[in-house]
Amino acid sequence: MVEQGWKLDQEVATSAGRVAAGACGDGPDLVLAHGWPWSSYSWSRLIPKLASRFRLYWYDMPGYGASDKRADQRTSLDVQGQIFAEMLDHWRLASPMVVAHDFGGAATLRAHLLHGCEFQRYVLMNVVAMRPWGSDFFDHVGRHVDAFQGLPPHIHRAIVEAYIGGALIREIDASDMSRLVAPWLTDDGAESFYRQFAQADERYTAEVEPLFGRVRSAVKVLWGEDDPWIPLARGEALHALLPPGAEFERLPGLGHLPQLEGPDLVAEKISSFLGG
Fold first, then answer.
1. In the predicted structure, residue 3 carries a pLDDT above the cut 60
2. Residue 73 Ramachandran class (φ > 0 left, ψ -120 to 50 alpha, else beta)
3. Which CATH topology does 2-134+201-274 take?
4. Angle 103-113/77-91 helices, nearest 10 degrees?
5. Hey, where are the domains in the chain?
6. Pairing of the two strands 97-102 and 29-33
7. What is the pLDDT of residues 145-167, one digit of tens each?
């Protein structure tokens, strides 16, 4: 199922470097925006379930997955919001539907509220959108990035695996875990992994938080109710700031990565809201 859907067979030149991307399916346009520390592979179990209903588009953010990971690269959320807008232009999508997860939430909100991108319908799932961000480990590494640079490969791998595993409350397939971890284990991947902590800055959500009431599309917040990284209360607070009529739904028994922990349920909820 995975190999029949998710793949990266496009290369797109952007202002932040080369971006790896893919597309498949038939129907209304739907863009999938991943977060940190994932890649577009995080949508791999969902894509085959949605491809009969939607024309799907995805990409690895600069600094992630198979996209460029240069030492001089800026990949902070202000950049990611601009790149999302550039990808919509590349695909010639004037008003697609969008599903965003984790940092993909902040990136797409910036694209919508600061860069004028229009979305037909919009799903925000366990997103980083409001201060404060992330887990205690995220905060700790951000304060001590230099101490983590240059770790022996086996220790670095253990950190990446433990960090990703800490987002989950359900076990996922071992092959999925391996594919999530792999991009961070190369030399440039390891450098990029810690560079994301170094470039994290809450001002990039602070700039859009006052604008959440101006979201111009129908919007739904989905939240894995047992998220160990971003508690359910944060999702409820985000919902309260969105325009009247915005929807909110808990995903019971799921953590921070619902699309891999419970892809059947997530596909059902997305399809129902988007009307596929």
1. no
2. beta
3. Rossmann fold (3.40.50)
4. 70
5. 2-134+201-274
6. parallel
7. 888 988 999 999 999 999 999 99
